[in-house]
Specification:
Structural class: alpha/beta
Largest sheet: 4 strands, mixed
CATH architecture: Roll
CATH topology: 2,3-Dihydroxybiphenyl 1,2-Dioxygenase, domain 1
Oligomer: single chain
Number of domains: 1
Radius of gyration: 16 Å
Shape: globular
């Protein structure tokens, strides 16, 4: 397993097709495959599990850190359904949202400014 503490699991009716599409459109790479029903894909230092739809609940949403504009261009060119074009947010992120071939929602985010939570209406909290 990778060092990631959290690994989202996403379900697809066609796991092989989803793997190919996620790698081409969103830039993932395959870490390993288990037959034609499960795989683990990597992006940067993060990982997702791709499995048959029957093993996970529908309607997952994932956030991935990327270069938002370049990634948006790549995803749109490969048929991603763009839900929201890249936009800057007051919490210091540039983000866009897309839907993949399995109906999962993705937000792709890029830090563009280091903004304290209090500056955008949030609250800083000390972690234990």
């Amino acid at each position: 397993m990778p060092p990631a503490s959290i690994i989202p699991e996403l379900g697809y009716d066609d796991v092989g097709g989803a793997i190919a599409w996620l790698c081409t459109a969103f830039g993932f790479r395959v870490r390993w495959r288990a037959g034609d029903h499960r795989a683990q894909l990597a992006y940067g230092n993060g990982t997702i599990a791709v499995t048959e739809s029957r093993y996970v609940a529908p309607g997952r949403s994932v956030l991935v850190r990327v270069d938002a504009d370049a990634h948006h261009t790549q995803a749109a060119a490969h048929g991603a359904r763009i839900l929201a074009d890249p936009a800057d947010y007051r919490h210091g992120e540039r983000q866009y949202s897309a839907e993949d071939v399995g109906g999962n929602s993705w937000t792709f985010s890029e830090s563009i400014a280091d903004v304290a939570p209090e500056d955008w209406g949030g609250t800083s909290v000390e972690l234990d």
